[in-house]
């Protein structure tokens, strides 16, 4: 409650800074208040369109709201802002795989994710193998 109050005060006092919007969005999302969290995530990226973490959070919240095209766009923007932002790359793969049912795009996203890691993710390796079987 204290953190939420402090973030809301920061937003009132410094409305041009994106960080408090993104932090409040994350806090509200953890509390299950997704609609308000999504609004703050959108405001965060409006204020700082170079924030890969804010776009990634927006993508997660858009996905939870069923806005799959908006989620895809947010993840893509996160990767434009920071091409090495691995969370957005993995989340994009999951979105393509489970929500958009686009196995070729999911496969490409998962492979790109694996390529970003120092050591391969064993779980994602299984997902890749499954997708390769399904897309032959």
Structural class: mainly alpha
Task: Please report the number of helical segments.
Answer: 8
Described by strand count, sense and barrel closure, the largest sheet is: none
Mean pLDDT: 97
Query: Any idea what the radius of gyration is?
Result: 16 Å
Give an overview in words.
With 136 residues, the chain is an all-alpha fold. Helices cover 78% and strands 0% of the residues. The protein has eight helices and no strands. It has helices at 2-13, 19-30, 34-47, 52-64, 68-81, 86-99, 103-116, 122-134. Helix 5 (68-81) runs antiparallel to helix 6. It is elongated and about 55 Å long. The model has no long low-confidence stretch (mean pLDDT 97).
What layout of secondary structure does this protein have?
Blueprint: H1 2-13, H2 19-30, H3 34-47, H4 52-64, H5 68-81, H6 86-99, H7 103-116, H8 122-134
Helix pairs in contact: 1-2, 2-3, 2-4, 3-4, 4-5, 4-6, 5-6, 6-7, 7-8
Question: What is the gist of this entry?
Answer:
This protein is an all-alpha fold. It has helices at residues 2-13, 19-30, 34-47, 52-64, 68-81, 86-99, 103-116, 122-134.
Record keyword descriptors for this entry.
single chain; about 140 residues; mainly alpha; 8 helices; about 80% helix; about 0% strand
């Amino acid at each position: 409650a204290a953190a939420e109050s402090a973030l809301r005060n920061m937003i009132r006092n410094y409305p041009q800074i994106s960080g408090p919007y993104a932090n409040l969005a994350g806090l509200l999302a953890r509390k299950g208040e997704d609609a308000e969290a999504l609004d703050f995530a959108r405001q965060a990226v409006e204020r700082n369109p170079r924030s890969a973490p804010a776009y990634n959070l927006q993508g997660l919240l858009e996905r939870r709201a069923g806005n799959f095209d908006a989620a895809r766009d947010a993840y893509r923007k996160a990767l434009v802002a920071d091409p090495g932002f691995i969370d957005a790359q993995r989340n994009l793969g999951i979105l393509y795989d489970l929500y958009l049912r686009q196995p070729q795009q999911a496969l490409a996203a998962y492979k790109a994710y694996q390529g970003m890691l120092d050591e391969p993710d064993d779980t994602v390796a299984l997902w890749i193998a499954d997708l390769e079987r399904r897309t032959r």
